[in-house]
Amino acid sequence: TCVLHRAAGNVQQHLADFLYNRKTMTQPYPPEDRYLVPGLMRGMRLLEKFTHNQQEWRLSELARALELPRSTVFRLVHTLEKLKYLERHPQRKTFQLGNRVLNLGFEYLASQEMLEVVRPFLTILNEQTRCSVHLGVLDNREVVYLLRIAGRQHLASNVGVGTRFPAHATTMGRVLLSECSLQELQKLYEGIELRKITEQTAISVQELHQLLGEERKRGYSLSLSAFEAGVVSVGTGIRDASGKIIAAINITGSETVFGREVLEGEIKDRVLEAAGAISKRLGYRV
User: d(Cα 174, Cα 197) in Å, to the nearest integer?
Assistant: First the structure.
């Protein structure tokens, strides 16, 4: 009898899940929301329930608060726990936010703090060179643009904040990869083809490692239409108190205005000066 009762309960629960998911999946969304992922939305809604006033939740409490079937909430919580976004309290049988959520928060705050430090220096660099200036960080094999100040006279960059480019093909990207050993690069690009952007693009890990070594010795990376025709760029790294490169800056301009001699002269000096001042502000000492 107990077995039958449990089986019946399971059937009812699965039926409730099915009806809920069917309702969710068939719920009409505005045309601009057709790409929304319902499961991801439920997971984010669940995380948002953890607040300063309610730091711990039981599974049953979350199900009631979210108006979701208990089994659905169980799967969401189990997934988030595996990904370390949630942690289980063994004695109280409750869940609380995990270290990964805190790390995301710290990274966000750090990025905002860095933007506040960097912006005045890049504004000055922009005024000195009249070029577009950018700040970027490395995300796996891509450089992500965090800040852009458009050029005032010469060719203005149309790159927006949040833009991603392949790190191996860009000045900021190569700066951010420059401290990687050959073994680290091989691991990073294992099974990945280095996309050829122009004839100047390094298309093998060995070739990239050699180029990074040359640029590391110089202290800056240079691009003469190596990523986009008619566009030149100079980039260098920003270091934290430990001496590690944590971000990169660059300027971009028109090849018709800036020849190699100018780029590797006054322009390069301005970029290095700005990066040095930012690094010093972040605690780096030579």
Answer: 14
Torsion of CA 53, 59, 62, 64, to 10 degrees: -130
**Ranges of the chain with pLDDT below 70:** 1-33, 102-103, 105-112, 152-158
* Distance from C-alpha of 87 to C-alpha of 39, rounded to nearest angstrom: 20
The pLDDT of residue 285 is: 80
Other Cβ atoms less than 10 A from the Cβ of 286: the count is 7
For 29, phi then psi, to 5°, come to -110, 150
Q: List, in sequence order, the alpha helices (H) in the chain.
A: 2-26, 38-48, 59-66, 70-82, 99-129, 171-177, 182-188, 205-218, 260-262, 268-281
> Residues 147-179, buried b or exposed e (16+ Cβ, 10 A)?
bbbebeebbbbebeeebebbbbbbbbbbbbbbe
C-alpha count within 13 angstroms, C-beta hemisphere, residue 34: 2
The structure's pTM equals 0.61
**Alpha-carbon distance values, 265 to 7, 139, 223, 226, 227 (Å):** 78, 30, 14, 19, 21
Q: 3-state DSSP call for residue 9? A: helix
Span 18-57, pLDDT tens digits: 444 444 444 444 555 677 888 999 999 999 999 878 889 9
User: How far, in Å, CA of 85 to CA of 91, rounded?
Assistant: 19
- pLDDT at residue 217, as a whole number: 92
> What is the end-to-end Cα distance of the chain in Å, rounded?
77
* DSSP for residue 162: T
